[in-house]
Design brief:
234 residues, alpha+beta, Glutaredoxin, Glutathione S-transferase Yfyf (Class Pi), Chain A, domain 2, 2 domains, 4-stranded mixed β-sheet, 8% strand
Length: 234
């Protein structure tokens, strides 16, 4: 039974998609990021970057006691290797999946995240910042659209690269994008949305959206931290 420290964000959805696709037993440990759960000392022990998701596997392959993993990309690689699915063992197809996983981690996620921040959450609307990240998100959509030409999935076969990227496309309207402008991406997006495991994963998240994610209190928690404010208390 995997313990999944989770909140229904794009990065959280990545992991529930994998767990639902593979039928891996898991238990949700809610991390309400709008109320500061990610800064609690016990969570810091498994996620030193104060970000969810994180997992604790009580039964890792080395049998040396529970193993914790943070960072959603690392979690997907770990779980795929543990279960033996959605990440090939052969060097070339494995590299294909990993480079697109890291593309999402280093590009699509951070840029779309800044798009969300300046377009939705920032108390001051800064036109330059909004335009910068809307355009960069659009460029990345184009990269993915070209990649999906003639392919059902990002790396050919369905993989953790698809699970990582899909949740960051779901809020496309909030990112000021039109899927109709990217026909290959839209075809892939619709196929992903139709997968029963993806639908189950998003259903899991519905139980945790019980209050507004961002209000004045949570804005300070989410966007106002420094090294000093999150340091463990002596």
């Amino acid at each position: 039974m995997i313990d999944l420290h989770y909140w229904p964000t794009p990065n959280g959805h990545k992991i529930t998609i994998f767990l639902e696709e593979t039928g891996t037993p898991y238990r949700i440990v809610p991390v309400d990021i709008s109320r500061g759960d990610q800064f609690k000392p016990d969570f810091l022990q498994i996620a030193p970057n104060n970000r969810m998701p994180a997992i604790v596997d009580p039964d890792p392959a080395d049998a040396n006691g529970p193993l914790s993993v943070f960072e959603s990309g690392a979690i997907l690689v770990y779980l795929a290797d543990k279960v033996g699915r959605f990440l090939p063992a052969e060097i070339r197809p494995r590299t294909e999946v990993l480079q697109w996983l890291f593309w999402q981690m280093g590009g699509l996620g951070p840029m779309a995240g800044q798009n969300h921040h300046f377009g939705t959450y920032a108390p001051e609307k800064i036109p330059y910042a909004i335009e910068r990240y809307v355009k960069e998100t659009n460029r990345l959509y184009g990269v993915l659209d070209r990649r999906l030409a003639g392919r059902d999935f990002i790396a050919g076969d369905y993989s953790i690269a698809d699970m990582a990227s899909y949740p960051w496309i779901v809020p496309y309207e909030r990112q000021a994008q039109r899927l109709e402008d990217f026909p290959n991406l839209k075809r892939w997006f619709d196929a992903m949305a139709a997968r029963p495991a993806v639908q189950r994963a998003y259903k899991v998240g519905e139980a945790y959206r019980t209050r507004p994610v961002v209000d004045e209190e949570s804005r300070k928690i989410l966007f106002g931290q420094t090294a000093a404010t999150v340091a463990p208390k002596a």
